[in-house]
Sequence to fold (103 residues):
Amino acid sequence: MAQVGLNHFLVISSILFCFGIFGIITRKNAVMVLMGIELILNSANINFIAFARYGSFGFQGQLIALFVIVLAAAEAAVALAIVLNIYKTFSNVNVDEIDNLKE
Fold:
């Protein structure tokens, strides 16, 4: 039976990071861009937990991952409020079509 090691976690984390970057670069919808940012933050959390497990960091990796989760929740709340305000103003949430915020 194969053991799950640090390399497995790093591969999964890099795949999630690449999907997040791909989502940010290719999507026009602001909500999809926010989902790409969340994927990037989750890949960082996997790295923190993996290095805490296989390194000599103790519980510091888990504490930093918990901080990142709180930061991601706050970011999602503020960003969704901004997206809703943009939709109310412009009736559109495509980031490439919203170029005039002062009206």
Observations:
- Residues 6-90 form a domain with the Helix Hairpins fold (CATH 1.10.287.3510).
- The two ends are 63 Å apart (CA to CA).
